[in-house]
Amino acid sequence: RGSTDDLKGVLDVMFVLDDILGEKTQEKLAAYLSHERVVYKMILLLTSDKEDASELEVVHSTREIHRHKYVISCFILYGPEDVRQKIASTESLLKPLLQFVASEIPRDTVVLEFVARVLGSLLHENADFTVAHMNVHFGGKFIPHLTGRIGSKAIAELITRMVSEHGFFNLEALLFGPVNRFGVDLLHRSNLHALLEQRFVEAVDSGVYLYETVCAAENCADVAANITLRAAMGEFQIENALDEDVSLASFSSSAAAHQSKDEARAQAEYVLFALRALSLLNNPKSMGGMIDAAVRVGTPWAVAAAVGACVKILEELDRAKFTKNIQVKMQAMQVKTAAFERMLVTKVPVLMKLVENIEPPLKMDYFMVVKLISLCFRLGSLETVQNLLNCKAHELLMTLFVRFENNTLLQREVRLAVNSCLNKDKKEFHEGWLIDLKLVSVILDAWEKLRGQPKPGYFQELMEIGLCVGNFIRRRRLVTGTQPVDPYVPKEREDAFQRYCAGPLDLFQKSRTKPLLHRPSGASDVGMKKEEVFDEDEGEALYIMTRLTEKLMGDEEEFEDEGSARVTEERAKQK
Fold first, then answer.
1. Count of C-beta atoms within a 10 Å radius of residue 492
2. What is the pLDDT of residue 374?
3. Comparing C-alpha atoms, which of 503, 502, 485 is closest to residue 494?
4. C-beta separation of 195 from 144 below 8 A
5. Torsion angle of C-alpha atoms 42, 48, 53, 56, degrees rounded to 10
6. Is the separation of the CB atoms in 397 and 414 below 8 Å?
């Protein structure tokens, strides 16, 4: 089938003329490159350490330097399916690829990405065969070698895909593929999370701020989060299979047809045990070690990497609860996070010390700490919320809310935390925010200060949090009959609170009316385009919002007069 030089010539032509090659020419090239001997030569070229461009050539990009490897990887990834099947089922073709990524020899980062993506596609074709040979050729050392190159994003994705092809954290389509029992077993026996923690600590403690170092730390935390999410969904999948007493083929990528029912069940129970061990929700120790290392060094990007992984786990689990996919929703609702939440609560005090004294502007790295605390308030159990109140996390949130007037992202997280606590039917949570923090006074003081220096973003969030607190207190007074005085509003601020509720707060609530869509009367459903016409409710809402903003900027007495009149009218009605 020709020499290696002939193959290189073909690859050069494909690199240069790829966009203008005719269909028949492409078919002939695909037929030539699909022969097993040619595939073997391509893999040897792909895994060689030599550059494809000669020293005399003038190259303008990294892709040109590795043009042969680039064309080969694209052909394997996007070419005929039988080429991938051939590689994924032939040991002599697969072995060089595994040796390239697992060796301790320094590799070119670009070529490493090419090879890792090819291996990822082979996992899709024949996951059991591919993973089995990872273990056979390296005696259990494949994963430790692989995590040594965790700075490559493709390597990080390859490790994650060893659990399953898809994960439910895929936002575009909430998918979850079959569990690869060989991959789960290999990751479990290799103690993956301990390896990730070790690599993370090494990257953080190196004290070297290089792109590769930052990527290594971020990828370690990200892989830990992704493995946890896939393990949680796989755990539910296998539990269902065991409960329904179905065969292993219902959740494994390629179960043996000759397996007896008892053998399949025993294997399923082992895979379930391994998945639980791979989930940080059950064993969060390694994630706690990453947070400790990041806090010890105090580097913002390290803190963001470790805390961001925790945020991702909580956010994706919460997002799955609101998907239209009923099966995914059921799975997410049954995931247990108690151990993970206990670990987070123990880390919150040290994380609070990192952000309590920072001044504007707030770095995005430290914002992740605020988001994590907010998520724990919103998604945590009652015990978790109570522990957060005990360590004064709510005080920190309100302090930052007032300090960072221009950071609407931070203010939104605080508002969501307040809203969540007030909506829980537990007196201690209400008292923590409204009595201990004197939240009503904080809102009134911020409102008075804001009227002199209006800020649109801060104004919006302040009104939202005021609306939450105001509605809560008004509902409580209607139920308990404690009007107009209750422990949540200081006596000296009662009149100011009444004016605030009767004036700007009510106007703001009206301005949040949702716009409606109308269709002209008599319009037919067939051949008639729906028109959006002026909505009186929407127009009124916009008018009220504009009027409220204008008042905020200027006439202070008008607010007081209107508020006082409404308060007097309401009290007269009550009498």
1. 8
2. 95
3. 485
4. yes
5. -140
6. yes
d(CA 205, CA 219): 16
| pLDDT (tens digit per residue) in 508-543 | 776 665 443 333 333 333 333 443 333 444 444 545
Q: pLDDT (tens digit, 9 = 90+) per residue, 52-108?
A: 665 545 555 666 778 888 889 999 998 889 999 999 999 999 999 999 998 888 888
Give the CA angle between residues 324, 328, 330 to the nearest 5°: 100
**Distance of alpha carbon 333 from the chain centroid:** 17
Higher pLDDT pick, 331 / 533: 331
pLDDT tens across 437-486, in order? 888 888 888 877 776 565 666 777 878 888 888 888 888 887 776 666 67
Token pair listed for 169:
């954290």
Q: CA separation (Å) from 487 to 438, 466, 529, 570?
A: 10, 17, 56, 21
Strands (E), 132-249: none
The pLDDT score that the predictor gives to residue 549 is 52
Cβ pair 306, 273 in contact under 8 A: no
- Least Cα distance to 118 among 42, 190, 181, 170 occurs for 42
Q: What is the rounded distance in angstroms from the CA atom of residue 112 to the CA atom of residue 156?
A: 12
3-state secondary structure of 36: helix
Query: Do 229 and 316 meet the contact criterion of CB atoms below 8 Å apart?
Result: yes
Give me 317's structure tokens.
Answer: 């689990």
β-pair partners for 561: none
250: which 2 tokens? 């219902």
The Cα–Cα gap between 432 and 392 comes to 9
Confidence of residue 546 (pLDDT cuts 50, 70, 90): low
pLDDT band at 126; cut points 50, 70, 90: confident
The pLDDT confidence band at residue 356, using thresholds 50, 70 and 90, is: confident
**Predicted TM-score of the model (pTM):** 0.81
Q: What is the DSSP string of 405-457?
A: TT-HHHHHHHHHHHHHHHHSS-HHHHHIIIIIS-HHHHHHHHHHHHHHS--HH
Task: With beta carbons less than 8 A apart as the criterion, state whether 11 and 71 touch.
Answer: yes
pLDDT, mean of residues 175-181: 75
37: tokens are 């001997």
DSSP string, 270-283: HHHHHHHHH-TTT-
Residues 334 and 236: beta-carbon distance below 8 Å: yes
- Which residues, 6+ apart, have CB-to-CB distance to 500 below 8 Å? 443, 444, 447, 466, 470, 563
Q: How far apart are CA 216 and CA 307, in angstroms?
A: 15
Count of other CB atoms within 10 angstroms of residue 226: 22
Q: Which residue has the tokens 């996919």?
A: 325
CB 315 within 8 A of CB 229: no
